[in-house]
Amino acid sequence: MKIRVLGIRGLPATYSGLETIMGELAPRWVEAGHEVIVYCRKALFKERPDEWKGIQLVYLPSIEHKMFSTLSHSFFATLHASLTSSDVILTWNAGNGPFGWFFRVAGKAAVINVDGMEWLRPKWKGLGAIYFKWAAKMATAAFPVVITDACEMKRLYLEELGAETTYIAYGANIEPSEHPEVLEAYGLEPRNYYLIASRLVPDNNADLILEAFVASNSQKQLAIAGGADYKGNKLENEFLDKLKRIANTSPNKVKFLGHIDNSEHIKELHHHCFAYIHGHQFGGINPSILKALGFSNCVLALNTPFNDEVLGGGRYGTLFDKNAASLTAKIETLETNPEQVEAFRQRAPEQIRNRFNWEHIAQQYLDVFEKLQKK
Q: Using CA of residue 312, residue 136, residue 358, residue 171, what is the dihedral sign?
């Protein structure tokens, strides 16, 4: 098949999330004998090779703005994909839902992965939230196949939008530690720090995590790996200022590492921390929590249906409620029960191997594509 992919920043991945997912799926499709074309946001790539790992790369413009960067690039990619040959088109992000009508008119077979419930995220207040809710509805009408990434997301789309969707999870790799010396560059000691690895935006709850950690009796450090995408964004800058104010109440306990785009460094930070704290609230199953399991980490996650699904109801990690006191208590419980922490680490890869395996997930997408072609 000739498969076109749009709605992501592009490949190779310089961000976690959808780019990382396609960085796993697309090479596997190429290895299986398919032709894969991925649309890339031209402004984000200084170097623009024609291909990567056998994947053809097409660079198109975008309006680099919080509201319009993704949508403008997806619009241009949609026009290009509508006018060129393909067997199937995979679109990411519910915000691109209305573009499915272009494919309908052009007679193209197309699929969308809606990737969460964007309209609930704090950064999309007002018109943004209204647009994303409408766009999600359009996605369910325009695309013959809508993919959701969690059982709870499948239920919500049926309940709130009246739409049947196809469930395909995200995946992760099981990888050992190879360069523990990486920690020295960040001034960290093995098992003597907790890790946050996420974008520092309100809906990932880094402020709650910081408050809980500073209030705890832990003598370890909290290492925060992450940043935000948009320079000059008032909401995200105010949030970062808030995090720094909280950290300043106990400066020796908190270490800001900044955005880290080296995947090997992220892997080592996961492998050698005491525990990974995951505060993601919206969206479906987040790749970050799966990555932590693949790196044999002990996971502390916000109690949401999505995180609970990943952690198997507590078998592969522990959940905390959305208040600082709950997380503080969980931190102190883990530190007084190191055998529990080690048990979580030992079991973590089992969940990736059995349920969130990339080989299986890549084939599930191909099965959907092939079924759509036969209609």
A: negative
Domains and their CATH numbers in the chain: 2-171+357-374 (3.40.50.2000), 182-354 (3.40.50.2000)
Place of tokens 């503080």: 328
Q: Which of 59-68, 85-94, 364-373 has the lowest mean pLDDT?
A: 59-68
- Candidates 328, 320, 308, 317; CA nearest to 210 is 328
Distance of CA 335 to the CA centre of its chain: 28
Give the predicted TM-score (pTM) of the model: 0.86
Alpha-helical runs (H) found in the chain:
18-31, 69-83, 100-106, 127-142, 151-161, 182-185, 206-215, 234-248, 263-272, 287-294, 305-310, 324-335, 338-354, 358-374
The type of residue at 33 is G
Q: Are 287 and 307 in contact (CB under 8 A)?
A: no
To the nearest 10°, report the CA torsion of 79, 38, 90, 77.
Answer: -20
> Is the N-terminal amide bond of 12 cis, ω within 30° of 0?
yes
